[in-house]
Amino acid sequence: MCGIAGFVGSGSHDDLQRMNAALSHRGPDGEGYWHSDERGDAGTPVHLAHKRLAIIDIEGGAQPMWTADGRLGVTYNGEVYNHAELRAELEQLGHTFTSDHCDTEVLLHGYRQWGAELPQHLNGMWAFAIYDRDAGTLFLCRDRFGQKPLYYAKQGDTFAFGSELHAVTAHTGVATNMDALSLRKYFAYGFIPAPRTLYERVSKLPAGHSLTLRVDDLSYEVTRWWDYVLEPFDSVPADAERVWGEQLRELLGAAVRRRLMSDVPLGVFLSGGIDSSAVTAYAAGHVDSGKLRTFAIGFDDAQFDESTFAERIAKQFGTDHTTDRLSLTEARGLMREVVGRLDEPMGDSSLMPTYLLCRAARKHVTVTLGGDGGDELFAGYAPFKALRYAKWYDALTPRPVHAAIRTLAGLMPVGHGYMATDFKIKRTLRGLSHPARMWNPVWLGPLDPRELGECFDGPVDVEDVYSEAIELWDTCPQDNLVDRTTRFYVKLYLQDGILTKVDRASMLNSLEVRSPFLDRDLVDFVRRIPAAYRFRGGVTKHLLKSALAEVLPRDVLHRSKQGFAMPIGRWFKDGELSVDAARLAPGQRAGFVRGMIDDHRAGRADHRLFLWNQWVLGRWCG
Question: For the domain that residue 80 is a member of, what is the CATH number?
């Protein structure tokens, strides 16, 4: 896993060095630079840079890498899990490789063979830039789900790109003016959805997209080469659960096996939940007993500690297990340091335990497998359960009655435990105050539309702020709440929330994390499973649980879901964390922020999500 950077047009080698230096944590094992005047190219200058975390073909994978004839060069971050098969196919087509087993070289020959169709052939995670000197084009590409980040900016006579936002903004030609709409989206979602960033005229390349830049005039075109589309099977077998369950087990096993390739030590994140336990079970089948490393984090507060479940699974499958036990006080003490190193603010407080887990694993391995994607693909989140009641409640409850119920719910005592009952009830009612197409972002987000209007100067256009969620809801081909909600979690929350968090937490520790549930073949199967089999009778992940019944213990499959969490509500109430109401983003109203702080401290309301997002933004801005 690595960091990439570069620019076309105006700029200096000092700009390139600053951009690459901003990515040092992503690649501690080496670096490389290339600029077009090295080879006497006429026309617009092209500069490429790379920071390397060596995983595959340690001796032969230095970048930027070039074809033997010097026509194609690449800087690349990621892993292509089917690179050996592609190499064999390309050799059959007449291509000659110089490396031993480097997946980077497969990209070069693959691009020569297939051009912009190359991504369709890849099974993996990636962000790369391929420069074609003959055609005068730069081809940028990001993987299907956006596991690997890629930012870019076209400002003036400079086009700059990089793995992280602060790599792009390290170029002196890139201005960093805060974008007002993106700031509002940050407080609406808890993340900033692609293609937007917190800066004007700096963008994220969305997942499943490519960008082709003409070097001579810096014109470019962004193309979507893949999309997550729900296309249920036309017919359902009489014994669908058995048939589809067998296919699911086979595909998941193959996905895990592909991700065990590594020339450096490898392990598995093991929380004791369904997804990580399944990955552990299949990985253990391909590693000698006692040789598979698994990792968990344990905390001194039982509400936030699930390490005992992880230890049980580790024992069952004979892994070499490590639980790094920490006090919550120690975790809180690291927050300022970690958040201060982020390239873009993110509102998920599970960043901290994820970072700590990555830090613990990196002491022993360079690569880990995780369970990310399982909840999104298989309808595993609590809001899916709320949908059953939300539909009828919305249809049968008049607005004045709903307002009265919400007022009464507001009188419930505030609890700050993990997913406290009052928190769930108030969140559910809050979402139901709005049209159905806005339920998911309002349930998830730090502020609702009314609060957004009070937080900022000037009017808030709800259609603009929630445009991504509204479009996904309105354009869903399937007229059911489960599929509409699945689209929100897969296409928004997974890309710009979960995977962004995992990438930053892992790469701050120079650790690569792989996600078997996001395997190309597995996803192509899961997206065709009808909603009634992913979520049935109030049971989340119905088919996945059925398929894994012969793999995992029943109590693991059916225990209540517990996410990575921190007691941030309690910390803000007790003053162990505090928001500086004087450190605000442009356009924010100090009175609103102070009111939220005061209400939370007095126990009148639970504003933990807003306060965390505000605290992160303050650390990031200051």
Answer: 3.60.20.10
Is the pTM value of this prediction over 0.90? Answer: yes
Last residue of a domain, one of 514, 540, 558: 558
Exposed/middle/buried for residue 457 (C-beta within 10 Å: 0-12, 13-18, 19+): exposed
Q: Domain check: are 71 and 220 in the same one? A: yes
Domain that holds residue 57: 2-224
Q: What is the CA radius of gyration of the chain?
A: 24
List Cα–Cα distances, 348 to 34, 275, 418, 476, in angstroms.
Answer: 37, 20, 14, 27
Residue 142 lies in a domain: yes
Distance (Å, rounded) from C-alpha 495 to C-alpha 458?
30
Q: Which residues lie closer than 8 Å to 560 by C-beta, 6 or more apart?
A: none
Among residues 541, 558, 575, the one where a domain terminates is 558
DSSP 8-state code for residue 588: B
Instruction: Look up residue 89 and give its two tokens.
Output: 């196919």
Contact of 50 with 3, CB cutoff 8 Å: yes
Contact yes or no for 67/549 (Cβ under 8 A)? no
Residue (of 563, 588, 577, 587) closest to 615 by Cα position: 577
- Tokens of residue 168, six digits: 């792009």
Q: Whole-angstrom Cα distance, residue 533 to residue 155? A: 48
Half-sphere exposure of 32 (CA within 13 A, CB side): 18
C-alpha distances in angstroms, 425 versus 98, 412, 454, 499? Answer: 61, 10, 23, 28
Written as six digits, the tokens of 25 are: 């944590």
496 DSSP assignment: I
Is there a contact between 618 and 612 (Cβ–Cβ < 8 Å)?
no
For the chain (622 residues), the mean pLDDT of every run of 10, in chain order, is 92 96 91 84 90 75 91 96 96 93 94 98 98 97 98 98 97 96 97 97 98 97 97 93 97 97 91 95 90 90 81 95 86 87 91 93 96 96 87 71 63 59 72 87 94 92 96 94 97 97 96 97 98 93 96 88 78 92 91 96 92 92 70
Burial (CB count <10 Å: 0-12, 13-18, 19+), residue 605: middle
Measured distance CA(21)–CA(31) in Å, rounded: 9
User: Structurally, how many domains does the chain consist of?
Assistant: 2
- E strand or H helix at 21: helix 13-21
